[in-house]
Specification:
335 residues, mainly alpha, four-stranded parallel β-sheet, 15 helices, TPR-like_helical_dom_sf
């Protein structure tokens, strides 16, 4: 069975209205996938670690090794090269290639553009330029070795199945966007997703709305954003509790603590085992801050401790709770 390679943007999924975690869920449904092979970021707070289980799409791990040591070697190489004029020039060339590719992947995009020849060629050019400047190995974080080992692991896993298929799997591999060209070269039977008839739907739209509400900007029309959140009831990937928590963040930003507390307490009461796993931590951490700002220190401390007792609280929620236990949160609207 051939594998379909689905591009991942990691945390950048939160910044693309038409290619976010909800869009990936809809793409997997479009492809008929009930599970996905995970060959991307090991970050436990990856957006899809919430979205896929909430959508009842399974994740099979075991295809992403811990390459933190390669990142360490890369840092050491940078330190070495920065000591010499020629080395600094090589680092500038590599940094220029990285900036160019980063500009591409941070520009709002959609599924068709993500797998277009132009984007895949840009990924190839980025890695070729990095390899030319710093050489394969520590300079590329051992990229060729990493992709070869992944391709070998996938080939062996497929070969162990009598029918050439992964038992119970959809044949969809989630991998970083810039890894797709290399994997296509190494896996002759791999293919890009067939997007015929695909268009982002309600799951993608709701996810984009929530992502946008969590990222306030100075020029935002806050009333329009609040009205949009209030109109929605949510779905499995972006439940109503998250919409309430996101709206509370807007009220907190303008200093309306009473409204923020009401929405956060409503969201907290709506938390169940079915909601995305990071939502409880994010909601309770923000609720602790609001209770602190309102002068209810004892209840705020209990709320922070509840965050730290959670099994899957995201790192930002845990950091917020730990800071809140050390010192009461004070709302500063002058910044």
């Amino acid at each position: 069975m051939s594998l379909t390679l689905l591009p991942d943007l990691g945390d950048l999924l939160k910044f693309h209205p038409q290619y976010n975690a909800g869009t990936v869920v809809e793409l997997l449904r479009h492809l008929g996938a009930t599970q996905v092979l995970w060959a991307t970021d090991l970050d436990p707070d990856h957006p899809l670690r919430d979205a896929l289980p909430a959508a009842r799409i399974g994740i099979q791990d075991g295809f992403t090794a811990d390459w933190a040591w390669a990142e360490t070697e890369y840092g050491q190489l940078q330190g070495f090269l920065s000591q010499y004029p020629q080395g600094r020039e090589r680092l500038r060339e590599a940094a220029g290639a990285e900036r160019e590719f980063a500009a591409l992947v941070t520009t709002p995009t959609n599924a068709a553009q993500m797998v277009s020849p132009d984007v895949l060629d840009a990924a190839r050019s980025y890695h070729a330029a990095t390899r030319t400047a710093l050489d394969e190995g520590p300079g590329t974080r051992w990229r060729e070795r990493r992709l070869s080992e992944l391709a070998q692991k996938l080939t062996e896993q497929l070969a162990r199945q009598p029918t050439g298929q992964l038992a119970g799997q959809s044949g969809v591999l989630l991998a970083p966007l810039d890894d797709l060209p290399g994997l296509l070269d190494l896996l002759p039977d791999a293919q890009l997703p067939d997007l015929t008839g695909f268009a982002p739907g309600e799951t993608s739209r709701l996810r984009a709305l929530a992502d946008r509400a969590w990222q306030l900007r100075e020029d935002d029309d806050l009333n329009a954003l609040l009205a949009a959140l209030d109109r929605e009831t949510g779905d499995a990937v972006t439940p109503g509790a998250e919409l309430s928590a996101a709206a509370a963040g807007i009220y907190l930003a303008v200093g309306d603590l009473a409204a923020a507390r009401e929405l956060l307490e409503r969201a907290a009461h709506e938390l169940t085992d079915d909601v995305p796993r990071s939502l409880a931590g994010l909601t309770l951490a923000r609720l602790g801050q609001v209770r602190d700002a309102l002068g209810d220190r004892e209840l705020a401390v209990r709320t922070y401790r509840a965050v730290l007792a959670l099994n899957h609280a995201p790192a930002i929620a845990r950091a917020t709770a730990e800071a809140g236990l050390k010192e009461a949160f004070v709302l500063n609207l002058e910044e």
